[in-house]
Structures are given as structure tokens and as C-alpha cells.
Amino acid sequence: MSTEPASGVAAATKVGRILADAQVGALLWGALPISLIADKYESDFPEISFVVLNHQIKVAETVLKACGYHLCRNPQCTMLEERAPGPVPTAHFHEQSFWISLLSKSDTLWWLPDWHHGPPAAQDPHLILTNDPRLPPAYNNGNVVGPTGPWLGFPGCLTLNPSAFTESILYLRVRDMLPPNRGSHPLEKVWRAMQYAMSDYGTPGQRPNTGPYRRTLRPEFQLAWDYLNGRRPDGHNISHGLCRLRGHLIDTGGLPSDSPNWNPRRYTKWEDIEVDYRRRGITDSPSVCIGPLR
Ligand SMILES: [Zn+2]
Known about the structure:
By secondary structure, this protein is an alpha+beta fold. It is 33% helix and 11% strand.
């Protein structure tokens, strides 16, 4: 057995293989695959997360139980309290040094077309295997430890490609964000931590933000990502891109159409935002955008 490129890789790819062999399309997600697309990421809590199509969750439970994994049905399980706040898994299993959580597609990746358990097509816009040589190569430059590189020597496990993975975090950030100036939803903090872990770099000595390390997002996602990564006009609030992305998704079916919409594009001048906020009962001073609208 070769050394693991990141803690949990052997266990995760083994589970992925067991489920794929049972024709369950389990998609590795959460903290662990961040090591494939950004910097090597070791979470404090050894959780291995898979997203599974809702109608296959029961099958996945049965298959893993039959293979000796320890299914926990305790709704007051202490593991749920010990770990940092995070999405409540539909099912979870306790193993000696980690736990496996099964997240439902509808809770996590609702926007993604349903997938199959086998290897994705070469041109699949979202999916890739964890041992695919097209993943960013390993990067290690002194104190900077970039991605691990593809997990060669381990079973290939379905996951999101770097661009789709980045977009998946932005979907969740805008789904769970509260109105500007209203603090943070507990889950938003989880997504923000993952987003920080995937941040772009490009300054000398850091992981490059070029070539195979650079991700290509759809325009509305790219705008939000640029704002979060410091590429925004002077005077613009960091949340501007997220609010605009949220508005775009509400308008185009990516989020429920009746979700509150704080898209700064709806306003032509600053005063309009304040009027609209008052109409919606939001009394705090708005901070969505304090510069010229783009
Ligand atoms: Zn438990």
C-alpha cells in the first residue's frame, strides 16, 4: 500500500469503490477532495462525505452495512455535536478513526444533473474520477503545499472537477446567506471555511493561479469568486458578487423563485436599495454595494 496523499484517501476510495460496485453513484465531496483541487486540506474532524442520489441512499446504507461498516441511527449522536456545524447527513457510519456521512443530493448538489455510478464521460462538464491525470498536478514549494495531485494507486472515485466543486460551494453560500448586515447562518460559516480553503493564489511563493491550477467558472459564478478573492472595484462590498449570483439563480431556477433577492443589479442607484430594504422590513443600513454598479 502506498502512502496516502491525504489522510482518509484510502478509506474514502474504498467506500467509493464498494458503492460503485453496487451500482450506487456516490460522489466524494466535502473537505477531503479539496486536497485535489486547491491546497492539501486536513480537516480537524475526520469526516468522509459522499453525496448520493436521494433514491439510492437506502441502498447505500444497506450495502455499507453488509460490508461491515457501522451504521449509526442515533439522532443525538455525540459525533454530530463534536464536529463543527455542518450539513446533517442523511445517514452516517462510525469507523475507528473517521466517520462516513451520506448527504442527499437534494440537500447538497440539487442543481447537478443526476449521475451514473460508472466513470464519467471524458467531456462531462462536472464529474471526474479522483485518479484522473487531468486533475491539477501536485504542488509543493517549501511552506506552500498545494494540491496532492490525482490519487494514483487508489481506486478512482467519482467527485466534482475543480470548477464544478468551486461552483458547488458558491451555490451553498448563496442559498444559506442571510440578508446583508444580518450576520451569518451557521451553515454559511461551514461553506465559507471551505471557500477559504479553495481560494485562488498567484503571488510569488504560493500555489500558482495559472494553467492547471486555475478554475473556469460560469460568468455569474466567476464574478462572485473574483469578489471573494479580492478582485473587485474599490468601494465594492465583498458580498456584492454573492448577492448578484443569488439573484441570478433565483431568476433562472437555480434557487426557489420565492427566495428573497438582494441582487444589486435590480437597483440603479444607492437610494433605491434603501427604499427597497425599508419595504422589505430590513432596517439595518445596506452594505451590498457601495460603489458604482457593474
Ligand atoms: Zn453516530
